[in-house]
Design a protein that fits this description.
The protein is mainly alpha-helical and about 270 residues long. The protein is built from 14 helices and no strands.
């Protein structure tokens, strides 16, 4: 991992930055992250909007890796909203138990599936206003589904995105909806979905909550929060976490070899829209 030679010695004061300057800096960060994570994708496995919706609901308070270990059996048993709406709750709870909070999640899934059957003829709606009316679905989940299953731009504000958008000085808010709108003002809509992936990848791998690896950060020179974590390059490199979810080594290798997202989707990799 390369690091800029001239990382900032002190933090910038966010209040001294104009909107135009913040836009330029934000887009420079995203450009660098895009180059650093050319394989950034939705890390939940899915083959259609229904599967992504279910997986995203299950991902609350657990890891994508854990969800991906759970959903193959779940989707084989309940392949669509109609099947899920008719599921036995006890059986459903047992299947999703590894993801945690399985009682609450099972109730949300059953109600959500029933709503899709009753109100949308069994098909996951492709509009944000419709999605957020479904049980267990907020703006974050809706934007995940829209951006990755329907190709409709959206910013996904999870815990990683919220943390990094504040560290990057893109927002001062702690409210997810306000953060979404603050960040949206800095980027073109066409960039929103991939921006979300870039930031989340970086948050999981480098810019950790407790001790960010500042000395191994590819965007250090544009970050007003440089210095909150370990700045020594060698020590920082030891803090880095995995580059792609376990089990996706082939995906990483093929992406780094230059295969396009279209080619990889055709080969069966779950990259979304």
């Amino acid at each position: 991992m390369s690091v800029p030679d001239k990382a900032p010695a002190t933090r910038r004061r966010k209040t001294e930055e104009s909107l135009l300057a913040r836009k330029r800096r934000a887009r420079r960060i995203n450009k660098e992250l895009a180059e650093h994570y050319p394989y950034a994708v939705a890390e939940l496995d899915f083959s259609n909007p229904f599967e992504l919706l279910v997986a995203t609901i299950l991902s609350a308070q657990t890891t994508d890796v854990r969800v991906n270990m759970t959903t193959p059996v779940l989707f084989a048993r309940y392949p669509d909203a109609r099947a899920l709406a008719e599921a036995d709750e006890t059986e459903l709870q047992e299947l999703i138990k590894p993801t945690g909070f399985f009682r609450a999640k099972s109730q949300s899934l059953l109600k959500m599936a029933g709503q899709i059957v009753d109100e949308f003829d069994g098909e996951v709606p492709g509009k944000l206003d419709d999605l957020v009316k479904l049980a267990g679905v907020g703006r974050k989940t809706a934007n995940v589904v829209l951006g990755n299953a329907f190709g409709i731009p959206g910013i996904t504000v999870d815990t990683h995105f919220l943390r990094l958008s504040r560290r990057f000085g893109w927002t001062d808010s702690t409210d997810a909806v306000k953060v979404e709108f603050d960040v949206a003002e800095l980027f073109e809509p066409k960039d929103w979905t991939m921006l979300s992936h870039h930031v989340v990848f970086h948050g999981r791998r480098v810019c950790h909550a407790r001790k960010p690896a500042c000395g191994a950060c590819p965007v250090a020179q544009w970050c007003p929060s440089y210095g909150e974590g370990e700045v020594d390059p060698e020590k920082a490199r030891k803090l880095l976490k995995y580059e792609l979810a376990p089990g996706r080594e082939e995906l990483l290798a093929r992406m780094m070899a230059g295969e396009t997202r279209r080619e990889l989707r055709a080969a069966g990799f779950p990259l979304g829209a």
